[in-house]
Write a structure and sequence with these properties.
single chain; 296 residues; alpha+beta; Phosphorylase Kinase, domain 1; D-amino Acid Aminotransferase, Chain A, domain 1; 2 domains; 7-stranded antiparallel β-sheet; 5-stranded antiparallel β-sheet; 16 strands; globular
């Protein structure tokens, strides 16, 4: 039976930050990111945990960090516990496959979203006014249509509550304009490189988000990339514009919650056991499809 982790405690280490899904610890001048099996939706952490989810997020990010390293440097130092500092050896079993040692950066306070298809909040925004984050799109587009070209739609990073979509012009008021343009350019390059690989594996990356940090003025890709938590994955074989698509990502859980009476203000409900099992299967499946590996 797979061991699951709703939380992870490393008593000898200083907790740097506890996010919705990850715990981050200080290891000297570096950080140790540990992915639990928690899952969040609509800005709430759900009471249910998803077996193997933390391992999928870490190992898939590891794959993509290696795959995109020529596009932009990233913060990954090591993702193999055998390469971690000796002081972490006692936690080997807990950290194995679900942790990453990374460089500490000055985080750029922007969620960098690239959309190649019309879905989710982008579809809602387009229906309301024909624009997404101030970008005018041609009329007549259907739900899930492929956009004529990918668009960059940043949002603010909220520690609590909802992230807020902003225009690129507004982003340049938060981030120095030259840096904002570089981030946008790199985001498009990352999306293009990963999308071509995913298509070769039968997967459409409809949209995704990135986070960046700085070390001495150098731009680094940080956090996670092209995971089921940060991206919208659709099977190419069943793709059909004009409707929502079957997903291999967290949308599966969001759709279930939308079908309940939950008001998205109070504590969220627990997920049914069969939904937990299927969500875990979807996470592992997308990992295998994208990496070509047979298991975690």
């Amino acid at each position: 039976m797979t061991e699951t982790f709703s939380d992870i405690s490393l008593p000898d280490l200083k907790l740097f930050k506890k996010g919705k899904v990850r715990n981050v610890y200080e290891v000297g001048d570096r950080l140790l990111i540990v992915a639990t099996d928690r899952i969040s939706a609509f800005d709430f952490v759900l009471p249910s945990i998803i077996p193997d989810k933390g391992k999928v997020l870490t190992q898939l990010s590891r794959f993509w960090f290696d795959y995109t390293a020529l596009v932009v440097p990233n913060h990954m130092i090591a993702a193999d516990v055998a390469e971690f500092p000796a002081a972490l050896a006692k936690y080997r079993e807990v950290l194995d496959k679900r942790s990453m040692l990374v460089s500490k950066t000055s985080v750029v306070p922007i969620e960098c979203v690239v959309r190649g298809y019309l879905a989710g909040s982008g579809w809602k925004e387009y229906k309301a006014g024909g624009k997404i984050c101030g970008i005018k799109l041609r009329s007549g587009l259907r739900e899930s249509d492929r956009l004529d070209e990918p668009i960059f739609t940043p949002s603010t990073k909220a520690e609590v509550g909802h992230d807020e979509n902003i225009s690129f012009k507004d982003m340049q008021k938060i981030v120095e304009p030259a840096l904002a343009k570089k981030i946008r350019k790199v985001s498009f390059e990352l999306y293009q490189r990963a999308s071509l690989h995913a298509l070769s594996r039968g997967i459409i990356i409809a949209d995704t988000k990135f986070e960046f940090g700085l070390i001495g003025g150098e731009l680094l890709l940080i956090d996670e990339i092209f995971t089921p938590d940060s991206s919208r994955f659709w099977p190419l074989a069943s793709y059909e514009p004009g409707r929502s698509q079957p997903s291999l990502d967290k949308q599966f859980v969001r759709d279930y919650l939308e079908s309940t009476a939950w008001d998205k203000k109070t504590d969220p409900p627990a997920l049914p056991p069969d939904l937990i099992a299927r969500t875990s299967e979807k996470y592992v499946e997308i990992f295998k499809l994208l990496t070509g590996k047979t298991g975690l």
